[in-house]
């Protein structure tokens, strides 16, 4: 997968060189290109923002540098894995970023992220971009960050771990919270490792019983309890066909 990010803070994306995403890049599974938006400004101050039409506080990112930056990225279509990327614009007013969307984005050969600063990007940039490629405005949560770079890190990491070959064990994300399948819409329950006793606390005996059926039941019970406690809104989204008698007894 190819990923391009246009930003005024490419250095904010340095964590993409680290850990799982960094290793995916080193293995050639991810091809990340960072672009400095100010490279497409032509004034001495490299200005990327201006006062908003209609007044109001804050500044708005100017359309000209964004337009030229997107032109330049799109020109690389001939050498990229797809003719055009799918553009993702982080914004608190976008559609929520979910595991389902991460799964969808992991199928794309090329993603282009446009994280903003200030009050966001002049709307015409997104409208014009939408005539050339698919554009999604995406929010990572109901809060407001100072800029979209952290949102890009969140989305790239969630997508990258789904790419084939990135996780050591391809099954690792099968039982994750929010993963599709038998445990869809259930949060993952508690997890334990060795030693079996630590500071007088033992792991639940079922986990060392070797009874795989009973362990699977225990995991599901714990997931149901945790989901009821932390995210009762998800319980109503569980497929009724996937609910059994023991679930109902909880
Ligand atoms: N005035 C904007 C609003 O209320 O929707 C907020 C602008 S915010 C200060 C600056 C930038 O940070 C946004 O344009 C976006 O790129 C990013 N950002 C902030 N919160 C975000 C969130 N929850 N999800 C995704 N991006 C976010």
Automatic annotation (TrEMBL):
Organism: Embleya scabrispora
Signal peptide annotation: none
Localization annotation: Cytoplasm
Residues where S-adenosyl-L-methionine binds: 140-145
Annotated function: Specifically methylates guanosine-37 in various tRNAs.
UniProt EC number: 2.1.1.228
GO cellular component, one term: cytosol
Coiled coil: none
Family in the record: Belongs to the RNA methyltransferase TrmD family.
CDD domains in UniProt: TrmD-like
A GO MF term: tRNA (guanine(37)-N1)-methyltransferase activity
Keyword terms of this UniProt record: Cytoplasm, Methyltransferase, S-adenosyl-L-methionine, Transferase, tRNA processing
Quaternary context: Homodimer.
Gene: trmD
Main location: cytoplasm
Keyword S-adenosyl-L-methionine appears in the UniProt entry: yes
Highest taxon above the source species: Bacteria
Protein name (record): tRNA (guanine-N(1)-)-methyltransferase
GO biological process: tRNA N1-guanine methylation
Residue ranges of every copy of the tRNA methyltransferase TRMD/TRM10-type domain listed in the record: 1-236
Pfam families (UniProt xref): tRNA_m1G_MT
Transmembrane regions listed in the UniProt entry: none
Gene3D superfamilies linked: 3.40.1280.10, tRNA(m1g37)methyltransferase, domain 2
Catalytic activity, as annotated: guanosine(37) in tRNA + S-adenosyl-L-methionine = N(1)-methylguanosine(37) in tRNA + S-adenosyl-L-homocysteine + H(+)
């Amino acid at each position: 997968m190819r990923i391009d990010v246009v930003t005024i803070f490419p250095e904010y994306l340095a964590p993409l060189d680290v850990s799982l995403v960094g290793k995916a890049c080193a293995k050639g599974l991810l091809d990340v290109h960072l672009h400095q938006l100010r490279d497409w400004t032509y004034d001495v101050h490299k200005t990327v923002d201006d006062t908003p039409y209609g007044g109001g506080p804050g500044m708005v990112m100017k359309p000209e540098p964004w337009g030229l930056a997107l032109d330049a990225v799109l020109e690389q279509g001939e050498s990229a894995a797809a003719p055009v990327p799918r553009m993702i614009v982080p914004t608190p007013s976008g559609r929520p970023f979910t595991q389902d969307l991460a799964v969808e984005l992991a199928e794309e050969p090329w993603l282009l992220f446009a994280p903003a600063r200030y009050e966001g990007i002049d709307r015409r940039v997104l409208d014009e971009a939408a005539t050339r490629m698919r554009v999604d405005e995406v929010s990572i949560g109901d809060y407001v960050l100072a800029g979209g770079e952290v949102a890009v890190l969140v989305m790239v990491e969630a997508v990258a771990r789904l790419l084939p070959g990135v996780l050591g064990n391809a099954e690792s994300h099968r039982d994750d919270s929010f993963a599709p399948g038998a445990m869809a819409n259930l949060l993952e329950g508690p997890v334990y490792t060795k030693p079996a006793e630590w500071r007088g606390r033992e792991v639940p005996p079922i986990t060392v019983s070797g009874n795989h059926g009973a362990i699977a039941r225990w995991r599901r019970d714990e997931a149901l309890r945790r989901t009821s406690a932390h995210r009762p809104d998800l319980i109503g989204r569980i497929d009724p066909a996937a609910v059994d008698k023991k679930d109902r007894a909880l």
